[in-house]
Amino acid sequence: MRAISCLAALLLPVSALAQEQACGGAFPDFVAGLKQEAVSQGHDPAQVEAFLAGVRQDPAVIEADRSQGIFQTPFIDFSRRLISQDRLDRGRALGQQWSGVFDRIQSDYGIAPGVLLAFWAFETDYGSFQGDFNTLNALVTLSHDCRRPELFRPQIFAALELYERGDFDPRTTTGAWAGEIGQVQMLPRDILENGVDGDGDGHVTLKTSAPDALMSGAKMLADLGWRYGEPWLQEVTLPEGMDWSLTGLETTMTVAEWERLGVSARNGALDDGRLEASILVPQGRGGPAFIAYPNFRVYFEWNQSFVYVTTAAYFATRLEGAPVYDAGTPQPGLSGPQMIRLQEALARRGYDVGEIDGILGSGTRSAVRDMQAQLGLPADGWPTPELLSLL
Q: How much is the average pLDDT of 74-94?
């Protein structure tokens, strides 16, 4: 199951009432607070009662939220697990089947077909499994939970608006454990703001309409900052004597500057020399290397997992015709428990690694790179048993 698909910064502010009743307490009292807030926002009381009638907590949602261990998997293993020849073949076939929709997406938003096809594949296996969690129960459960109520509570009121439009059934609408709906998995507020009636039937139906789902996903990416017609990721070859401390999303240079340092495309040529870009080595100096263009950062507005984002962006390039990356011979990494020990050690030294969860995210990579430099190790951001031992 993937990480949350949008950032709290993209949501409406939580009201004063919601701040008081943001999470916890008896569940019936929490639901009563939701009803009161919905009515205060101008929703019809009868509609609110009908919408929230029978809502319940779902313990399986909390269990799923606490167990996202798949994101502890290193990039090479993760990408090989998600990208198969069958997924490539089906993606290319669907690209042909819905070529008219993808032509509209390229014309309207400047987004290549592979980008949406990759999300479609990873989120729901091209629509074949969209999740069977009751969406309203999931959203209310996560809002009542005190881990991230500010992220989920606004989604309840967005779902209420969809219900009032006739595009959400609180009893039968299902999706992912985190409340995402449809073939490319969008949260209710994203559907309100970016839903597109791609098939012209007067409704935005992301579960059953591929044109609606793909056009809505494209509009959402555009609204998140996708730059029209620009690339997102490309495999590169790095020079001997590379300064590894320059790798990572924290460092950007123009493509022309990277070329002067000896960075070259593994296949073809690098893009516009004026574009700002970063060099990524997801498994350190011994593994594959990529140049990440500005559009790569938009992926993090969809999903916050570094390994997921890099894999989705890479798969999009494969669907556009890029060859399999050169896996190289990366150094052994850390197990989940070892990564937690590393994060704890870094946090004690004052680094902000985010949640200590055993996941090698951007914050942990940045801290590792800085620590490696201090210890005289190649600062490639890839944590090894040697680094853990030194710490």
A: 96
Give the single-character DSSP code of 321.
T
Q: How many residues make up the chain in this entry?
A: 391
| Domain boundary assignment for the chain | 336-390
Q: 168 — alpha (psi -120 to 50), left (phi > 0) or beta?
A: beta
Write out pLDDT tens, residues 295-309.
999 999 988 889 999
Beta carbons of 108 and 218 less than 8 angstroms apart: yes
How does pLDDT run across 47-68, given as a tens digit for each residue?
Answer: 999 999 999 999 999 998 887 6
The residues, ordered by sequence, that sit 6+ positions from 265 with a Cβ below 8 Å of its Cβ are 234, 235, 236, 237, 291
Rounded CA separation 9/191 (Å):
16
Q: Which long-range contacts (CB under 8 A, 24 or more apart) does 261-269 make?
A: 262/238, 263/236, 263/237, 263/238, 263/239, 263/291, 264/236, 264/237, 265/234, 265/235, 265/236, 265/237, 265/291, 266/235, 266/236, 266/237, 266/325, 266/326, 267/235, 267/322, 267/323
Beta-carbon contacts of residue 96 (< 8 Å; ≥ 6 apart): none
